[in-house]
Design goal:
about 450 residues, 13 helices, 2 domains, 26 strands, five-stranded mixed beta sheet, UDP-n-acetylglucosamine1-carboxyvinyl-transferase, Chain, four-stranded mixed beta sheet, binds shikimate-3-phosphate, alpha/beta
Length: about 450
């Protein structure tokens, strides 16, 4: 397996006999984005330990710098306190950012573009936002419509695609019911709501991750949440915080799925995010046959954190639909990539959103699995993968999508023969050291 992956690099993954060891997972990407954005509009200095190493979060920091937010990065070398990754110090500007001279490049990051748009809608200047090829194909209507109702003027390419130009100004609170269940949309509107007159209410069709609400409270705002309804009053001021970002459960999922493949495997993942709106993954993994125990539960700035021990026994598979699909949306690619090895297979439904992620993840999973010799039925909103199949190593594509690159690195561990993943460097979008860490826990 290659160690340092350069742009366009391929990774070779060999079949493994077992996975075993401790993995220290970098800070959660969803929380890191929100902390970086809120720190910039807070008063005073914020410090974040174990800030995500993801390229996506670097895109957010880059955009915040272009908006006048001064931040610096230090590498945390302390082994003693189990902290890995970086400490980021951000000097807050208060509610008012500086008009950007350059276009805000969000790279591959939908989270950056969608959530930052909420803050920009409340600023008395115009901003241009762009992204890479993948982000330029992704739907932004879901934020353009409500932000326009609040009073921002936003132009986009046809069909609501990036690049965007946002002319911010005075906003008014709205009561909005998004059609798609999206935490990015909810956070975008909560952030805009901070700058709006009156109250902004978001009523979601299905409950999504609540890092936006929790982060806003950590920075001192009052945010109300009851069931699927979140509300924020405009005009509130934020204060900087010092926080430790919990390990990203969506990154941990790749190692948990690797353990699931090998009876007798054992992995330990300290300091992982256990937020109930994300941790449904652990219930599903247990239902599907992984033995999991969680210890050292703590709360950091409203986010639950714990250590995971997982043991592989026998992988059963199952069905994911409805609210579970929304809760597991980022983990479905890896669950699908290993499904053919399960006893019962896997059915995924209600997952249309997977088609508009960094790649069309339903098509990407189906194409790669077929290349490995698997049988798979692709559905408009999901897929059916029969269990009990044997896969062979093959030449696969990441389709420039980090989660596809990592999902198939895991699937390759149990295939017959070597697998080459082209464009494996995409993993850095959320997890730059992924291939190194995977190699460290596998025995071939
Ligand atoms: C995220 C929400 C989800 C998820 C994405 C991160 C967030 O996207 O897929 O990786 O941090 O809020 P949607 O809001 O589009 O569902």
């Amino acid at each position: 397996m290659s160690e340092t992956l350069h742009a366009g690099a391929a990774a070779t993954v060999l079949p493994a006999r077992d996975v075993r060891g401790i993995v220290r997972i970098p800070g959660d990407k969803s929380i890191s984005h929100r902390y970086a954005m809120l720190a910039a509009i807070a008063e005073g200095t914020s410090r974040f330990h174990n800030f995500s190493a993801a390229l996506d979060c670097a895109s957010t920091l880059d955009c915040m710098a272009k908006l006048g937010s001064k931040w610096k990065r230090e590498t945390n070398k302390s082994e003693a306190d189990d902290l890995v990754g970086e400490v980021i110090e951000v000097h807050g500007l208060g509610r008012r950012l500086q008009a950007p001279i350059q276009t805000l490049d969000c790279g591959n990051s939908g989270s950056t573009m969608r959530m930052l748009s909420g803050i920009l809608a409340g600023q008395p200047f115009s901003s241009d936002l762009c992204g890479d090829e993948s982000l330029s194909r992704r739907p932004m209507e879901r934020i353009i419509t409500p932000l326009s109702q609040m009073g921002a003027t936003i132009s986009s390419k046809e069909g609501g695609r990036p690049p965007l130009t946002i002319r911010g100004g005075s906003l008014k609170g709205i009561h909005y019911k998004p059609e798609v269940a999206s935490a990015q949309v909810k956070s975008c509107l909560l952030f805009a709501g901070l700058f709006a007159d009156g109250e902004t209410v978001i009523e979601e069709p299905i409950r999504t991750r609540d890092h936006g609400e929790i982060a806003l409270r950590a920075f001192g705002a009052e945010v109300d949440r009851a069931g699927n309804v979140s509300r924020i009053r405009g005009g509130q001021r934020l204060s900087g915080i010092e926080a430790h970002v919990p390990g990203d459960l969506s990154s941990a999922a790749f190692f948990l799925c690797a353990a699931a493949l090998f009876p007798g495997s054992q992995i330990t993942l300290p300091g992982i995010l256990m937020n109930p709106t994300r941790a449904r993954l652990l219930d599903i993994l247990m239902q599907m046959g992984l033995k999991i125990s969680v210890s050292h539960l703590e709360e950091h700035h409203g986010e639950l954190v714990g250590s995971i021990e997982a043991r592989g026994v026998a992988w059963k598979g199952g069905k994911i639909s409805g609210a579970d699909t929304a809760a597991l949306i980022d983990e479905i690619p890896v669950l699908a990539a290993i499904a053919a090895y399960s006893k019962e297979g896997l059915e995924v439904r209600d997952a249309e959103e997977l088609r508009v992620k960094e790649s069309d993840r339903i098509a990407a999973v189906a194409t790669n699995l077929r290349k490995m010799g698997a049988e798979i039925e692709e559905l408009p909103d999901g897929m059916r993968i029969p269990g009990g199949q044997r896969l062979r190593g093959a030449e696969l594509e990441s389709y420039g999508d980090h989660r596809i690159a990592m999902a198939f690195a895991v699937a390759a561990l149990k295939a017959e023969g070597e697998t080459v993943i082209h464009g494996a460097d995409a993993a850095a979008v959320s997890y730059p050291n992924f291939f190194e860490e995977l190699r460290a826990i596998t025995s071939t």
